[in-house]
């Protein structure tokens, strides 16, 4: 064998070895794909996903689908072929592992953080949804009056406490503190809203059985409406806030917000109803469309609109740009009225 032939053989062997090594070394990436969806107007274990007490509930139909992305596990170690395949795929993206799973956090810690974000998003969505429906989410409301207590016959369940002895009340804690501070046995003056009336009610206090130095009148207080959200699937993160808000609004107002359509969406929400951007917008669009069996309308956060417009499905469903809960409600009303010209679409 000549020197030249030997060199070629050795080079070939080395090249094969390098390729084998390259294809077998774990890569520091995760793959993000379309995830599961869930209808917030649907049921979980035979009960509504969203249950509301303290207000009239109206019939709903159609879908208000929250959307998610699926991310490979923290301990998943993709090889080069896996990364290349995801890079080429239309419905997947490749991200550095440290972006999704900070190295200083365990899988359990990341999961706990995602669940905490979901709980926070639900709480904020309740505020935004009630506000959009014309209900003050911060109103301090009498939930129950104890029989035989000082307030019996003077206050009723659903009375809203506006002030205590002339001091404006802005929270349940403030109302309890103001009443407790009165000398036990002394009267306390309450300004309340009962229906459309504003009344001043005087109640003689009594000592609290738990602490005789503090006064009580025998009422329990809380928010005007109780909202409980229980999903059928284990979903975390803050990006379902917009959809939760819309579902709460739909349940509390006459008529169908969706018009019976399959509507999906995403976006964080704040207490003022502003919609914030999220990650994985194109994957969420694909997941909601479900090869034509799913959404015909997708609500896109304004800051994600440009990216969403690049979706291969931009011509298959309405990608509607929204910046607030109010804009989302108006957009769905325009679709129901057949006025698509009133919409701001992504990718058009």
Low-confidence stretches: none
Tell me the number of strands: 20
Give, in spatial order, the strands making up the sheet with the most strands: 6-1-5-16-19-20
Q: If you average the pLDDT, what whole number results? A: 88
CATH topology of the largest domain: Ribosomal Protein S5, domain 2
Radius of gyration: 28 Å
Shape: elongated
Query: What CATH architecture of the largest domain do you see?
Result: 2-Layer Sandwich
Helical coverage, percent range? 25-40%
Query: Mind telling me the CATH class of the largest domain?
Result: Alpha Beta
Q: How many distinct folded domains? A: 2
Helix tally? 9
Beta-strand percentage range: 25-35%
Distance between the termini: 66 Å
| Helix and strand sequence | HEEEEEHEHHEEEHEEEEEEHEEEHEHEH
Given helix and strand content, the structural type is alpha+beta
Biggest pleated sheet: 6 strands, mixed
SSE layout:
Blueprint: H1 3-24, E1 29-39, E2 43-44, E3 47-48, E4 50-53, E5 63-71, H2 80-88, E6 93-96, H3 97-100, H4 107-132, E7 141-145, E8 160-164, E9 167-168, H5 172-180, E10 187-194, E11 197-204, E12 206-207, E13 215-216, E14 219-222, E15 226-229, H6 241-252, E16 262-265, E17 268-269, E18 275-276, H7 281-289, E19 297-301, H8 305-309, E20 318-322, H9 325-336
Parallel strand pairs: 5-16, 16-19, 19-20
Antiparallel strand pairs: 1-5, 1-6, 2-3, 4-15, 7-14, 8-9, 8-10, 10-11, 12-13, 17-18
């Amino acid at each position: 064998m000549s020197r030249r032939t030997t060199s070629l053989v050795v080079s070939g062997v080395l090249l094969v070895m390098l390729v084998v090594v390259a294809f077998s070394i774990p890569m520091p990436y995760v793959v993000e794909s379309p995830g599961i969806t869930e209808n917030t107007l649907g049921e979980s274990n035979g009960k509504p996903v969203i249950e509301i007490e303290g207000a009239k509930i109206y019939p709903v139909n159609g879908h208000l689908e929250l959307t998610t992305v699926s991310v490979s596990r923290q301990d998943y170690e993709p090889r080069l072929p896996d990364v290349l395949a995801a890079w080429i795929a239309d419905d997947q993206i490749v991200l550095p592992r440290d972006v999704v799973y900070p190295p200083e956090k365990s899988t359990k810690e990341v999961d706990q953080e995602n669940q905490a974000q979901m709980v926070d998003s639900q709480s904020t969505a309740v505020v935004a949804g009630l506000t959009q429906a014309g209900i003050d989410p911060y109103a301090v409301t009498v939930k129950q009056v104890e029989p035989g207590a000082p307030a019996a016959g003077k206050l009723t369940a659903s009375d809203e406490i506006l002030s205590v002895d002339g001091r404006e009340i802005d929270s349940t804690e403030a109302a309890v503190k103001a009443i407790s501070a009165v000398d036990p046995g002394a009267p306390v003056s309450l300004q309340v809203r009962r229906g459309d009336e504003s009344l001043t009610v005087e109640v003689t206090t009594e000592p609290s059985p738990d602490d005789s130095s503090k006064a009580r009148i025998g009422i329990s207080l809380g928010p005007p409406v109780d909202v409980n959200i229980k999903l059928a699937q284990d979903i975390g993160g803050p990006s379902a806030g917009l959809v939760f808000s819309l579902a709460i609004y739909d349940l509390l107002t006459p008529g169908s917000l969706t018009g019976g359509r399959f509507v999906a969406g995403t976006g964080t929400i704040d207490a003022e109803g502003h919609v914030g951007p999220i990650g994985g917008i194109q994957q969420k669009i694909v997941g909601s469309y479900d090869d034509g069996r799913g959404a015909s309308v997708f609500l896109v956060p304004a800051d994600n609109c440009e990216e969403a417009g690049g979706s291969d499905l931009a011509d298959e469903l309405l990608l509607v740009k929204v910046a607030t809960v109010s804009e989302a409600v108006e957009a769905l009303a325009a679709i129901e009225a057949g006025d698509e010209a009133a919409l701001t679409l992504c990718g058009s």
